[in-house]
Amino acid sequence: MIKSLKLKLVLVIAILCAALLSLECYVTFRKTQSSFEDSLNANYNYKAEYFAAVVNNWLVNETGTVDSAITAVTSGENDNEAEIANSLENATATLEEITENDDSASMVYIQLSSGSFINGSEWIPSDDFDGTTRSWYTGAVALNGKYYYSDPYVDACSGELVIAVSKYFNTNGWEG
């Protein structure tokens, strides 16, 4: 054992200094960790608010796209077969134009209650496709003239965020 008093005193002071230094390191680490977590949370909240604003802005724009599509179909009176055929051609051309001019709307189309499908995008549905059974159609019908927004999801092929915006209409002999 240590017999010198000076050596014992130096050893005790060294142990106390090491303990105090360890305590200071621990306190500093906890403060820094808390500050870092606060910064991360603030950054996360900022990004969440930003993305929510982007999605809300997109939804506002797409409600205008939906209204334009409905107007394209319901704008004229359809009394006979020739007028109906002409209206379908005009509506398809207008929907294609809307799709080309709106980069954020990948598919603009109308499903009529009769089963007719007016496509304004390059998407070609399968032969057994029946839009009247889809949630965007049944949800819009249930809201009777108000906008229906589907739950967002990420498309497996493109990796894009997808939200369907739809609205029921029943005007000038057209329903869908």
Describe the structure.
With 176 residues, the chain is mostly helical. Helix content is 57%, strand content 11%. The protein has 3 helices and 8 strands. A two-stranded antiparallel ribbon has the order 1-2. The chain has a two-stranded antiparallel ribbon with strand order 3-6. A hairpin with a 5-residue loop joins strand 1 and strand 2. Helix 1 runs antiparallel to helix 2. The chain is rod-shaped. The mean pLDDT is 82.
Please describe the topology of this protein:
Layout: H1 5-74, H2 81-101, E1 109-111, E2 117-119, H3 135-143, E3 147-149, E4 153-154, E5 161-162, E6 165-167, E7 170-171, E8 174-175
Antiparallel strand pairs: 1-2, 3-6, 4-5, 7-8
Low confidence ranges: none
- Protein structure class: mainly alpha
Q: State the helical fraction.
A: 55-70%
- Number of distinct helices: 3
Query: Residue-averaged pLDDT, rounded?
Result: 82
Q: How large is the radius of gyration?
A: 32 Å
Number of strands: 8
- Encode the helix/strand succession as letters: HHEEHEEEEEE
